[in-house]
Structures are given as structure tokens and as C-alpha cells.
Amino acid sequence: MEVEARLQDVVSRIQAAEKSSGRTAQAVTLVAVSKTFDAEAIRPVISAGQRVFGENRVQEAQGKWPQLKAETPGLELHLIGPLQSNKAAEAVALFDVIETVDREKIARALAAEMDKQGLTPRLYVQVNTGLEPQKAGIAPDDTVAFVELCRKELGLQIEGLMCIPPADENPGPHFALLSKLASACKLEKLSMGMSGDFETAIQFGATSVRVGSAIFGGR
């Protein structure tokens, strides 16, 4: 199957999941995850109408997205991988949305860079719903306080929450937990769900899903 057909298949599945879970049409944004794919592999997906993309690494994104954004105005780029504080300046300059605000040091670095550059990428707090030691993210019990710190002390506008459930567990309870935490923080945006579980995520209220291999194929 060509990449354009795979993209359309994912879009159709999102629409069906919206309908079956009683969501309004176009309630869910598809973030096409283009990490490890070069510009030549990404251009057909842009040509097919996709406008929102996700990358894991700042350095890799810098190698392809300035050119792609120059070619096609209106593209939106999300950072969905872990951010090191020494890359905060580059991240603020390149990304429209940073989904992986996961500790105070990063929040402070982003606040300083946004002030310095006069740019305001939209921000999500990453929550480690499974408390996995190898995975980034704020512990669920600390999420409300961390969002308050970002808002009140650092003046950051937090748009939503993001999670990556443990690979070997049913994702449903993790999506439900993220939704509950978002309500406690008075946040409406939920970035959750990937190629294997995005339909489940939509049932639990995802407003954006991050889909890579189902569109681009295996890495």
C-alpha cells in the first residue's frame, strides 16, 4: 500500500472512532510521526494533505523541517520525544508544539527561551502514567501541582497533557487516568494514542493521536 493510501486509511479509522464514541467530527487531530524518515519520504504525505507532524529529536528535525516548512506554509510541527535543557533554544525556534514538558528544569528553560525569542510554542505536560523508571514524565500524583507551577510561577500556558502507556499493558486505564488528570487541571487537550491503540484513545477523549508506522510503514 502506498503512503497516501495508508494515510487515508488512518484518517478513515479516526473518523469511524469519532463517530462510534459519540465525538464530534474532526474533534481529533492526527499527528503524523515522521521520526527517522527523511524529507523525500515526508513530502508525499504533505502532498496528500497532512499538515501536522511529530518528531522525536530536535537535531533530526532541524535537518529536514526548516526546508519542508519553507516549501509548504501552514505545517505544524510537534516535539513528541524527550527534550534536554541544552536543546531548549532550538526547540522553541523550530517547533509549534512541545508535548514533552516533563520536569521543572525543562519548564524553566522553555520559559526563559520563549521570553528571549518572543515565541510561544504550545505546551503539553508529559505524564508517566505507568510510573516506568525508563520513561520520562511527571508522576500522576504530582501532575496538578506541576501544571500550577508552570502556570503561576513560570507564566507558561499549558495546553494539555500527553502520555505513552506501558507497551505491555491495556492502554485504556492509562488513557482514563490522563483524562481525569486533565479535568483536575482544567485542561481540554489530551495527546494520547499511537498506531496500535489510537482508536481506544479516541474513546477516552484524545484530542490528538500520534501515528507513525501505520502511515509511513516500518522503521
Low-pLDDT runs of 5+ residues are none
Strand tally is 8
Specify Rg, calculated over alpha carbons. 17 Å
Instruction: Determine the structural class based on helices, strands and strand pairing.
Output: alpha/beta
The main sheet orders its strands as 7-6-5-4-3-2-1-8
| Count of alpha/pi helices | 10
Average per-residue pLDDT, rounded, comes to 97
Query: What is the H/E string?
Result: HEHEHHEHEHEHEHEHEH
Distance between the termini: 15 Å
Shape: globular
Helix content: 40-55%
Largest sheet: 8 strands, parallel
Percent strand equals 15-25%
Q: In a few lines, what is going on in this structure?
A:
The protein is of the alpha/beta class and 219 residues long. Helices cover 43% and strands 17% of the residues.
Structure, described:
The chain has about 220 residues and is α/β, with parallel strands linked by helices. It is about 45% helix and about 15% strand. It contains 10 helices and 8 strands. It has helices at about 5-20, 40-45, 60, 65-70, 90-95, 105-115, 145-155, 170-185, 200-205, 215, and strands at about 30-35, 50-55, 75-80, 95-100, 120-125, 160-165, 190, 210. It has an 8-stranded parallel β-sheet. Helix 5 packs across helix 6 (about 105-115). The longest helix is centred in the first third of the chain and has 18 residues, at about 5-20. It is globular. The two termini are about 15 Å apart. About 40% of the residues are buried. The model has no long low-confidence stretch (mean pLDDT about 95).
